[in-house]
Design a protein that fits this description.
This protein is mainly alpha-helical. The protein has one domain: Orthogonal Bundle (Arc Repressor Mutant, subunit A). The longest helix is centred in the N-terminal third of the chain and has 34 residues. Strand 2 and strand 3 form a beta hairpin. The relative contact order is 0.17. The C terminus is likely disordered. The two termini are about 10 Å apart.
Length: about 130
């Protein structure tokens, strides 16, 4: 019986997390469109798609993930930063990395066994 509750809790948490990540991606897309409105083929759009797998990212990792050269990747990163989607983690221009806004918070909630914000309850309280 306890195993069944744990499995159910894990499934509920996983579903809520996937929904929350998709909502975050949709929010990022809206913010990018409203602030910078890059071209349809901009690297920024491709970068948004890979951010859930890379909550903290560097330009070389981004370039490898989207299979683009440095110039478009850096331009995409600049566009995402201007839209408030990426925030720099260091002040220097060398070996810089960025954090995807909101994603680490979701991961922390997942790790704590909490449902994302608008689900309003924890998995523990659902299964109690």
């Amino acid at each position: 019986m306890a195993h069944s509750k744990a499995t159910s809790s894990a499934a509920t948490l996983a579903k809520a997390y996937l929904v929350a990540v998709q909502e975050l991606i949709d929010n990022w897309r809206s913010r990018l469109s409203a602030s910078v409105d890059p071209r349809a083929d901009s690297a920024a759009w491709k970068l948004i798609d890979i951010l859930p797998a890379h909550p903290m990212i560097t330009a070389p990792v981004a370039g490898a993930a989207v299979q683009l050269s440095k110039p478009p990747v850096y331009k995409g990163i600049q566009e995402l930063q201007a839209a408030g989607i990426l925030i720099p983690l260091s002040g220097g221009s060398r070996n810089q990395s960025w954090e995807a806004v909101g994603l680490l918070d979701l991961l922390a909630q997942l790790e704590a066994g909490e449902l994302p914000g608008n689900w309003s309850r924890t998995v523990r309280s659902i299964t109690s």
